[in-house]
Amino acid sequence: MGVPNVTFKYLNGQLGGVNPSQDGVCGLVIQVPTAPAGLALGASKALYSLADAEAVGLTAAYDETNSVSAYGEIRDFFSKTGGKGELWVMPVINTTSVADICDTQNALVAKLLADSQGRIRVWGVATNRPAAYEATTANGIDQDIYSAVNNAQALREDYALNRYVPTRVILPGRAFTGNISALLDLKQQSNNGVLISLHGRKNSQEGMIGFLLGVIASLPVQRNIGRAQNGHLGVEEAYLSDGTTKAEDLFALQDVLHDKGYVFPLTRVGRAGYYYNADPTATSNTDDYYSLAHGRVIDKVQRIAYDVYLDRINDDFELSLQGKISASALKALQGDVEDAVNVVMTSAGELSSFRCYVDPEQDPISTGKTVIRLNVQPRGYYKEIVVELGFVKAQQ
């Protein structure tokens, strides 16, 4: 037995924590004119590096031969994630509309999410329309994108509420006409799970969705993509999705464009490089999820809570003498999820605080239902900083 002494044993699993979720897992549907050699149209594949893309035939040569940016989108993603990450890719024929790609009735995005087994947190569509395609642009961008927004919102809500797989969606504002006044005001919509990005490439009407997904994947869930301290975007030039308007050209109009709820690159006085304006979703600023960061935070809480409470389905618990949920059962219901969320998120600075409340007066025997309220206090964000500057005769 050895010399008598005090010994210690570390206990584990006492806090009810769960493994941190894979917050940076993204999905990308890419329009292409023909399938790459190693990946069929409508099939999905998880890529963990640029070499994985090349292995299935998505190469620089493929892009050049087909006059598209498929490999380019994937390269952009990994350029922002340090060359690694998890990107689920699905090529689709480029005659398929973005609205159809996002439609719950079509097995495209739905299949992508299913194939990833719910791992995808944010997904987008990279467009490469045929040269013969003529976009309807009366509202400033391809009308197909506006049509896709409602479908994408419906799809994400279906998966979040009915399949317990919450996601967020990025769509390209392709074929931007350069006419900001013609753009629809996204702040008049209620599609709080969808963003439209006007970030594009020189001489192209398509967007840079792979790049934006890479930026998102590189940041913690509570981080705004427009945060100045993130650093500049690391590109030598920044264009809008008309292929000719540069970020510098927007300086006098960027407030108007921002107030309409679009994501776009801009310049900051006194800072080198380009930055995103913010992370607005296609909904009113009175909506709790007007920001991608708020959406990503609540999605992560949902995933953790689902994992915690799934183990309690059909479990038995002690009742009080009045037939209500007993104090010990209430404490367990509240404590388990609070421990899990606080260990994974609050301690990491992704939330300000988190509390769970269960009404002790519920009658689970009669109703067969237990209602739990999760109160998430997000981080605060410095949006507009007003500095009052002037002379004083004497300091107070």
Q: Could you explain the architecture of this structure?
A:
The protein has 396 residues and is α/β, with parallel strands linked by helices. Helices cover 28% and strands 13% of the residues. It contains eleven helices and 14 strands. The chain has a six-stranded mixed sheet, sandwiched between helices. Helix 3 runs parallel beside helix 7. It starts with 25 loop residues before the first strand and ends in a 19-residue tail after the last strand.
Features:
396 residues; alpha/beta; Rossmann fold; 2 domains; two-stranded antiparallel ribbon; 28% helix
Backbone structural class: alpha/beta
> What is the count of distinct domains?
2
What is the CATH class of the largest domain?
Alpha Beta
Overall geometry: globular
Provide the succession of SSEs.
EEHHHEHHEHEEEEHEHEEEHHEHE
Instruction: Give the CATH architecture of the largest domain.
Output: 3-Layer(aba) Sandwich
